[in-house]
Design a protein that fits this description.
The protein is mainly beta. The protein is built from three helices and 24 strands. Mean pLDDT is 86; it is low at 1-6 and 15-47.
């Protein structure tokens, strides 16, 4: 226990040291840019002071991987949960870092290969969410969260322009918790690196992404049912209550090195490089002292290559034979071994070539995109004793148009799997958003239809398929959605209507099943901000969900947040 406190104290000292470096940056975000144009003459002291102010100021913007629109930081962030990995609509096992599940109906809307293991997705950093920055000065963030049970989160971010046309960023996050009960400790490590380079003539762009996630979560199977432990005075300290898995492990509350006798361990890594070359029209802005080159693309060639590894493991080093005999098939536990191990290990290599065409040279938010992708997959199962190789070839296209007057935002995209493991899968999506008036706000309507092969954890090859293998039909999901956003009165209404057939789910702990009939789900969400007085505001969310038909899903009818 002394070591744990000592290490926490060391972290706090480190935070205090770093704060002196970061405090200046937070103030710089609010300073007025270009102050030098307001002043002239004066003594050397005034000039030096002004120079320090200019050097200390910062202008920063960012864009996402599949977007060309530069965005600014939201410095008026009102929602603290933005800095917390688990969204408000998710439920967990009661401990930071354990498995999480959305209480909103959220079917998988991605065609093609899917490993199927998503219980820890909220704790992962993803390549698609990375921000590519452009900044005049180095910028850093440091966040630290400490809970009442020594739960902790550490968040680090640093970005700077190596050159005016080349930016690099690095992000790290540590999430861990000793848990409220035995064998519940978690330890997650995530990192993400991004590089964005653009040639001086604006024709060539190079993007590099490195992402790594290492997740470890204890599994205890729940509290034992052979006694009333929760109401017993002898178990006021919850860490002493016996659990179904993991044995007696009450003293393992060290979150720097948790003892995980029974654990789920997920390890993912992605290495991606994207190159783009534009053909179009050159231009420039000429002032008295500088010439700023401009370039308006008409045709863009893009190549993306990515290599990813996915390692999913469940390990029980202290097997309770009665638990497995009661809940799982006989073949899961072997009497001649003291361990239970499930293992799926995937390697994925993706090559994509795309062509963009820009109808309006001066509007990069309007383009037509067409491409072809080859995906190669290698799977190792059952602790490496069984292996298989697969491939997918699919076509994809996209049209996007955000008009320069900011009134229309049109997006449509789709892909179709021509050959391979998931041949016949497809996705079709279209969305139309329009600014109606300052009083009415923005109206959006959209449609999506996805036809997909069930996730691979339902396949007989997977180590996590514990039942007798079966053949399942493709899932088909249609989503008709609409939203009304009224910034003037701080009100947003959204609605989704789902039509689902051949829905996949589990029953009796481990047995996969597929819904034979068609069912539908209606979801309506209202978000409103009320001003109470002064600087006080009340924000509320209300979600209504209703299923119809023989739907094998359990959803709360009303979900609220304030």
């Amino acid at each position: 226990m002394f070591r744990t406190k000592h290490r926490v104290f060391t972290w706090l000292i480190l935070l205090l040291i770093c704060t002196s470096q970061l405090h200046a940056q937070s103030g710089a975000m609010n300073r007025v840019r270009g102050m030098g144009s307001r002043f002239g003459g004066g003594g050397s002291g005034a000039g030096d002071s002004l120079l320090k102010r200019v050097d200390d100021s910062i202008t920063i913007s960012f864009r996402y991987l599949d977007s060309t629109r530069l965005q600014r930081f939201d410095t008026a962030r009102l929602d603290f949960s933005h800095f917390y990995p688990v969204p408000w609509q998710y439920k967990t096992l009661g401990n930071l870092g354990n498995a999480a599940e959305s209480m909103l109906f959220s079917p998988v809307l991605r065609p093609g290969w899917d490993h199927g293991l998503h219980a820890y997705d909220v704790y992962m950093l993803k390549p698609t969410d990375i921000r590519f920055y452009n900044t005049t000065n180095a910028y850093s963030e440091l966040g630290y969260l400490l809970g009442s049970r020594l739960e902790q989160m550490i968040h680090l971010l640093h970005t700077q322009n190596i050159r005016p046309n080349w930016n690099a960023s690095f992000q790290y996050r540590l999430t861990n918790s000793p848990g409220f009960f035995q064998n519940q400790a978690t330890n997650h490590n995530n990192y993400r690196f991004g590089s964005w380079y653009q040639s001086i003539n604006k024709r060539y762009q190079n993007i590099i992404i490195l992402v790594g996630n290492k997740l470890q979560s204890g599994e205890n199977g729940g509290i034992r049912t052979d006694g009333n432990y929760l109401d017993s005075s002898g178990y006021t300290e919850r860490l002493t209550i016996p659990t179904k898995l993991g044995g007696d492990n009450a003293g393992s509350s060290n979150f720097f090195n948790p003892v995980l006798n029974v654990a789920t361990r997920y390890t993912q890594a992605t290495y991606m490089m994207r190159q783009q070359y534009d053909i179009g029209q050159k231009d420039s802005i000429v002032t008295d002292t500088t010439v700023t080159p401009l370039f308006y693309p008409r045709l863009r060639l893009e190549h993306t290559i990515s290599y990813s590894t996915y390692k999913y493991r469940f390990e029980d080093a202290r097997v309770d034979t009665n638990f497995y005999k009661l809940n799982y098939p006989p073949g899961l536990y072997n009497s001649d071994t003291s361990r239970v191990t499930l293992h799926d290990f995937w390697k994925e290599l993706v090559n994509d070539f795309s062509i963009y065409q820009f109808p309006d040279a001066k509007n990069s938010q309007q383009f037509i995109k067409a491409g072809i992708t080859l995906q190669n997959l290698t799977g190792n199962f059952d602790t490496g004793t069984v292996g298989a190789k697969y491939h997918n070839l699919f076509l994809h296209g996209e049209y996007r148009n955000k008009t320069r007057n900011q009134k229309w935002d049109i997006g449509a995209h789709g892909n179709f799997y021509v050959r391979g493991l998931n041949a016949g899968d497809y996705n079709a999506f279209v969305s139309l958003r329009r600014f109606i008036s300052p009083k009415i706000g923005y109206l959006q309507v959209g449609f999506q239809n996805v036809n997909r092969t069930p996730s691979f954890n339902f396949d007989g090859m997977s180590s996590f398929m514990l039942a007798v293998p079966q053949r399942f039909n493709k899932e088909n999901t249609t989503n008709i959605f609409a939203s009304l956003d009224q910034p003037a009165i701080k009100l947003k209404l959204t609605g989704s209507y789902y039509l689902v057939s051949n829905y996949m789910y589990y029953e009796n702990y481990y047995q996969p099943a597929q819904a034979s009939g068609l069912f539908n789900v209606l979801s309506v969400t209202a978000e409103k901000q009320f001003r109470i007085g002064g600087k006080w505001n009340w924000r509320t969310w209300v979600v209504l969900q209703q299923k119809a038909g023989n739907a094998p899903v359990n959803l709360p009818l009303i979900l609220t947040r304030n």
